[in-house]
Every structure is written in C-alpha cells, then in structure tokens.
Amino acid sequence: MTLLELLRIDLPIIQAPMAGVSTPAMAAAVSEAGALGSLGVAAAGAEGARRMIKAVRERTSRSLHVNVFCHAPAQPDTNVETAWLEYLRPHFERFGVKPPAALREIYRSFLEDDDMLDVLLEEKPRVVSFHFGLPSAERVRALREAGIVLLSSATRLSEARAAEAAGMDAVIAQGYEAGGHRGVFDPNAPDDNLGTFALTRLLVRQLRVPVIAAGGIMDGAGIEAALRLGARAAQLGTAFVGCPESDADEGYRRALLSNAAHHTLMTRAISGRPARCLPNRFTQLGADVSAEQIPAYPITYDAGKQLHAAAKAAREFGYGAQWAGQGAPLARALPAAELVATLARELREAGMLSAPS
Predict the structure, then answer these.
(1) Per-residue pLDDT for 357 more than 60?
(2) Of 29, 122, 244, 252, which residue is least crowded by CB atoms under 10 Å?
(3) pLDDT tens-digit series, residues 280-306
C-alpha cells in the first residue's frame, strides 16, 4: 500500500498542523481539495480538540490529520521564572500592564494527557502525529488498534529510527528551514541543524517506512524536489498561513508578506523551545539572553501569550508568535482549496502528477 493510499488522499500534499493557526475550515478545505488537512490541538485541550474534529467533520468526510505534542512535562524553576518576568517587565509596562505574578504550565503533554487520548480513540481521525517526541508503547498500541495511522516528526536519524521502532507508519523529516517549533526530542541536546533535503535523503536511505519532507517547501517545485529525493509526500505549513481560513491575525499576515519574511530566525524567547519566527520585537528581546535564562516550555509561553495579548490590545503586533519557515518570501495569500489546486497544477506541469481524469 502506498502512503497516499494509507492516508486516503489524492495528492502528496499535507497541510501542516499548526497549533493556533490551522482551523477546522482550513483543514476541511484542504482535505476536500484532495490533500491532507490537519489540526494542531496541543493548545486546545481534550474537549477543544473534540470540538475542532467535529467541526471538520461537519464540512468533509475525507481524511483528517490531528497533531499532539509529546514534550517532557515542564520542570518549574521559580528563580528562573521570576527573573524572566522581571526581564519582561518593561515590555509589559510599555502597554500599561504589570507582568503576571507567576507563570504556569499552560499545555499538557500528550505523554500524560489521558483525556486527549480518549478523545482521539473516540473520534478516530484518520491520522495522528507526534511532535517533540514519542508517546508510550501503550498509547501507540491503543491508537493503532483503533485503526489510526501514526506519524512522527524527526530532525535527525536517531529520532527517525526511534519513531520507526515505535511503530510509526511514516516519518516526517523536519528540516532546519521549517517554521514554528523545532521538533527535536531533546531541546537541550546539540542540534545538527540538518536541512530538509539532506535529512529527507538520509532518512529515505535508512528507513523502511515512508518519509514525508517538511521545511521550506512552498510550491510545486519544492514538492517536486522532495519527491525526487524519495519522499512520498511533502508537508507545508508557512504556505498556508496567509490563507483566509487561517487564524493568523492581521499583524502576522502583514509581517509574512513584508521584508521580514526574508530574515526568519530561531528563538526560544517566545515559548521556551527553539522555534523559527519572523523577526519582531519578541525575537529582538530574546536575542541577548541565554537558554539558561529562559524558563521551561511551555511555562515561558504563558508569559509570551500574555505579553502578546497586552501588546495586541494596543494595536502592536510585534510580540506575537509569528512562526514562519525560510521559504516565507514565496507565500501566496490564496484560499486553502485554491492553494492546493495551484500546487497540484504545478506538480502536473513538472510531470510529477497525472492529469485529473
């Protein structure tokens, strides 16, 4: 069985499950267009995830991909957190508010979220994927027994081999170019910073399961290159941020279509884990701090979200999590279905896709 048959899609295109950006409307439109629509539910909680899945199913009966985070639960450090809030104080006060008195762990990891597991087993999306690591063998077994196809991101060969050994049906090769959170299993370990195409080719040569390329891919030419390297599909995230169905706010959209798109960079300052972002006020304030000064993920994100909310209320959008990959200058602000159709046409023109019958 091919990967497309396994996923039950027509096109080798996956819309990345961008938590906070992808929406049920986007996922449904992408799936209806023949690609794989996706939801990032890590920030939604179990019941929020259920509502999002049901909202997609009200729009389409085609395959749906749901992504969860498998990060190690945060280890609080009051001293680090207090110092970080003091560092952010001038930025909060700029908008007439005080920083929070304390920070909290705002997301539950799927590693310990039984409620989220129950939702996935009850709702049975066609595909579930994991970011930041892998769940227990028991959780993998339960999901597989429910007939769910399982994927995991990997940023290096050792992570990919672990994913294959854990029973993943395919591995997402997340290159260093990718926007949003770097999927490293251990954010404090040295990162080889492998690019998408080098990593894709390496994993294709070394794994028995199919490989999906992700990172910096924005158009049919990028998908074609990934397929020629042996990937069975490509996952695109930044390409969909500008779609009207996305939850990106007006400041994020403007920044994506500005010169900032040419200068994306990695930062921990917004969430506590490395993530590729458009340069903005938040990345600037994080440029001069060390990883040791930043609280654990997702505790740091509590501060980041509150600062963004205070700034946004004053019409300042520069403190947002404006995640974007290195291909951001190629972004096109098209409706999601139209974007998928455009990508498919570009693939056909490259000889990588048969004409529709």
Answers:
(1) no
(2) 122
(3) 999 999 998 999 999 999 999 999 999
